[in-house]
Each structure stands twice: as C-alpha cells, then as structure tokens.
C-alpha cells in the first residue's frame, strides 16, 4: 500500500489492521471491537518525519481534504493534542526505533472548520534497518455536537483541581490540605459540581465527567483536559 489510490480501496483498513496485528501480536487495544471499516481510517506516514505519504479517502476526508491534497502534509500540523510537543516526541520515538507504537487522544478540524475527537494509533512497519514507515489508525471517539457543547461543562481552574481530586479518590480532608482550602470550602465546591452535573454522589460525578471526555486518557492521577478549563 504505497500509494494514495491503494489506500483508498475499501479493504485497506483490513490491511492496516493486519499490519497492526503483525506489530502487536493482536489488534491494538484502542481498535479492538470497533468496526474499523466504518469508524477507523488509515494513512501511511514517513519514518523520517510525520509527512503523510498515502491516505484512505475517508482519512483525508476527515480533514476536508482529498488523498492527493493530504499527501505531503505534516500530520502533526493537522492534529491538536493536549501537549503538542509530546505528540511530536512520541512520533520521534517510533520513527527512531525506541518504541513500536503509541496511542494518543487528538482533535482535528474537518472541511467546515468543525472539531472532531479521535484516537490516533501509530504503528511502526518494521524492516531490517529500522522502521520503514508508520501505519496511522484514526478512530473517531466523539461527534461534533458533543465537542461543540463542551463549553457548557467548562470549569474554573480550582473546580477542575477539585474534580481531579475526587476522581483520584481523595477525601475532603486530603483535598483541603492539597488545595489549601477549608473542609467547608471543599464540600461547597464538590456540592456545586454534583448539582451542575446532576450527579447524586461522587462516583456518579466522576462517571459523568468521564462520559463527557473531560479527563486525559491513560493518565494517573486524573487530569482534566485544558479544553474544559476556563
């Protein structure tokens, strides 16, 4: 699959999935159980940098581009990550052979300027001299409407820290000490979050926040994404 036209075929996602199985010994965790033909789109990226060398029509279309238009573009310039420099570092680790794959939560913009959320998985295609290239799997994880309405759930910096503490299982006393607040102040802010998210208790509050995609994936202690902090 060395050209954009070959990646544009309906079976190309299955080919990329086969490459992923070869690299992992199984399907990558973030793509297991999903309908890859419909929700996961595929591209190839140069091992020398993050330039797109080939892409499925659906992959390019997610950014409002054609396969011909997206080829030669820097993939990192098309994506937004919580820590952009970290995204480039993770690509460098794979390109330089220090890692075989990684998964990162990203956002992008389609041709109308609307934002979408996705899980990006980069997998090295091995050869004797090092990675010959990278297979990129882009799996949509949230529709536009959910992302556009995130502004209704933005928190102050202090409320975000309180929510993170609740998600980590910290008690009121622990939160008060950590945030230099009184216990009454912590209870007040937790109560306000419960009412705001219509949650009956702390576990339900954390579940609602997770359901809205407010926390960075795979990070402990939990961190509220900057997009949800005023």
Description:
By secondary structure, the protein is an alpha+beta fold. Helices cover 41% and strands 21% of the residues. It has helices at residues 4-7, 12-24, 36-39, 57-62, 67-70, 75-78, 84-95, 144-148, 157-167, 172-179, 183-196, 202-211; strands at 40-45, 52-55, 79-81, 101-109, 115-127, 130-142. Strands 2-1-6-5-4-3 form a 6-stranded antiparallel β-sheet, sandwiched between helices. Strand 5 and strand 6 (130-142) form a beta hairpin. It starts with a helix and ends in a 19-residue tail after the last helix. Residues 1-6, 8-38 and 144-149 have low confidence and may be disordered.
Task: Give a short synopsis of this structure.
The chain has 230 residues and is α+β, with helices and mostly antiparallel strands.
Largest sheet: 6 strands, antiparallel
Low-confidence stretches: 1-6, 8-38, 144-149
* Strand order, sheet with most strands: 2-1-6-5-4-3
Rg, alpha carbons: 20 Å
Oligomer type: single chain
Give the arrangement of secondary structure elements:
Elements: H1 4-7, H2 12-24, H3 36-39, E1 40-45, E2 52-55, H4 57-62, H5 67-70, H6 75-78, E3 79-81, H7 84-95, E4 101-109, E5 115-127, E6 130-142, H8 144-148, H9 157-167, H10 172-179, H11 183-196, H12 202-211
Antiparallel strand pairs: 1-2, 1-6, 3-4, 4-5, 5-6
Give structural attributes.
6-stranded antiparallel sheet, 230 residues, elongated, alpha+beta, disordered N terminus, single chain
């Amino acid at each position: 699959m060395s050209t954009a036209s070959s990646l544009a075929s309906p079976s190309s996602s299955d080919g990329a999935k086969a490459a992923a199985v070869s690299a992992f010994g199984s399907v990558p965790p973030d793509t297991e159980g999903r309908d890859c033909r419909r929700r996961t789109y595929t591209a190839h990226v140069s091992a020398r940098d993050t330039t797109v060398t080939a892409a499925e029509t659906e992959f390019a279309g997610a950014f409002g581009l054609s396969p011909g238009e997206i080829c030669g573009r820097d993939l990192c310039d098309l994506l937004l990550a919580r820590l952009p420099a970290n995204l480039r570092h993770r690509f460098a680790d794979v390109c330089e052979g220090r890692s075989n794959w990684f998964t990162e939560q990203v956002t992008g913009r389609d041709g109308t300027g609307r934002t979408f959320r996705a899980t990006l998985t980069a997998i090295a295609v091995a050869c004797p001299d090092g990675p010959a290239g990278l297979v990129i799997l882009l799996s949509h994880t949230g529709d536009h409407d959910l992302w556009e309405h995130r502004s209704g759930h933005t928190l102050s910096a202090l409320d975000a820290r309180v929510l993170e503490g609740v998600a980590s299982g910290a008690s009121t006393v622990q939160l008060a000490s950590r945030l230099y607040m009184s216990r009454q102040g912590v209870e007040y802010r937790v109560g306000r979050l419960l009412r705001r998210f219509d949650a009956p208790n702390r576990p339900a509050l954390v579940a609602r926040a997770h359901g809205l995609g407010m926390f960075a994936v795979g990070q402990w202690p939990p961190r509220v994404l900057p997009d949800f902090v005023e």
